[in-house]
From TrEMBL:
Required cofactor(s): a divalent metal cation
Record-listed a divalent metal cation binding positions: 8-9, 43, 96
Cofactor binding, note field: Binds 1 divalent metal cation per subunit.
Enzyme class: hydrolase
Gene3D superfamilies according to UniProt: Survival protein SurE-like phosphatase/nucleotidase
Keywords: Cytoplasm, Hydrolase, Metal-binding, Nucleotide-binding
Protein's UniProt name: 5'-nucleotidase SurE
Organism: Gemmobacter lanyuensis
GN (gene name): surE
InterPro entries reported in the protein's UniProt record: SurE, SurE-like_Pase/nucleotidase, SurE-like_sf
Function field: Nucleotidase that shows phosphatase activity on nucleoside 5'-monophosphates.
Sequence similarity: Belongs to the SurE nucleotidase family.
Catalytic activity: a ribonucleoside 5'-phosphate + H2O = a ribonucleoside + phosphate
Length: 262
């Protein structure tokens, strides 16, 4: 199996090393793992692509490249330049430092990389490690994803639910819970949740030179979502697996809207 990996935390991020180990186990002895990751951190860029400017790409080692772009850029670079048209069988994005559950999903560059792969017709999985008090003092804060990552990816592959005939095909969002590996309770298929009464915001700050800047600030990450949704099962010690697609149409209101506008 040929696997392309990327992330949004950057080429030197520890989570990318974890993902490489996961991908190597999945690819098998005769497989290939190719890395194309951002040269610098790209957290929060979503599905951004560098449409209006070129980007540099550098070979750092055998099957290892860094690109000055977003995770979606890296997937495109991998498909159309690095791999020279030899399409991968699977794209893995992550392992992100921090959860990409609930509304975080909409901002995530980790998700953006997997989404771009799905738009290119390639099976893709995004993986993220929820952090919290139980992971803070671990020697390896990625312990849960390191221990359970390969089995989770393998289970998704064995389920074989990709809908390749669909215009917007399925990709998967996986979040590992904020607990040590031994305390992971199992896996739950869960819809995307929503953290109520919290959101991203902007906070002003005056620099030492007197200039006014704004910092984008995230909300509390341990605010529970509705029971059974992604962040809720993560906080209960379970790995969440959420099937997603890029179609943003609100299908549930199409008929009602058409009737009202008729």
């Amino acid at each position: 199996m040929r696997i392309l990996i990327t992330n949004d935390d950057g080429i030197n991020a520890p989570g990318l090393e974890v993902l490489h180990d996961i991908a190597t186990e999945i690819a098998g002895p005769g497989g290939e793992v190719w890395t194309v990751a951002p040269a610098f951190e790209q957290s929060g860029v979503g599905h951004c692509i560098s449409y209006s400017r070129p980007m540099m790409i550098a070979r750092l080692g055998d099957r290892r490249y860094a690109a000055e772009g977003s995770p979606a850029d890296c997937v495109l670079a991998g498909l159309y330049d690095v791999l020279e048209g030899a399409r991968p069988d699977l794209v893995l994005s992550g392992v992100n430092r921090g959860n990409n559950a609930a509304e975080n999903t909409l901002y995530s560059g980790t998700i953006g990389g997997a989404l771009e792969a799905a738009l290119q017709g390639i099976p893709a999985i995004a993986l993220s490690q929820f952090m919290g008090p139980q992971t803070a003092d671990l020697a390896d804060t990625f312990q849960a994803s390191r221990q359970h990552g390969a089995a989770t990816v393998r289970a998704i592959l064995e389920a074989d639910l990709w809908q390749p005939e669909a215009d917007y095909r399925i990709f998967y969002n996986v979040n590992f819970p904020p607990v040590p590996g031994a305390k992971v309770k199992g896996t739950r298929v869960a819809p995307q949740g929503f953290r109520r009464e919290t959101s991203f915001s902007a906070e002003p700050q005056i620099s030492p030179s007197g200039r006014r800047f704004l910092w984008i600030k995230g909300g509390p990450q341990h605010t529970p979502t509705a029971p059974g949704t992604d962040a809720a099962v993560n906080l209960d010690g379970y790995i969440s697996v959420t099937p997603m697609r890029a179609d943003l149409t609100a299908h549930d209101v199409l008929a009602d809207l058409a009737a009202r506008l008729a």
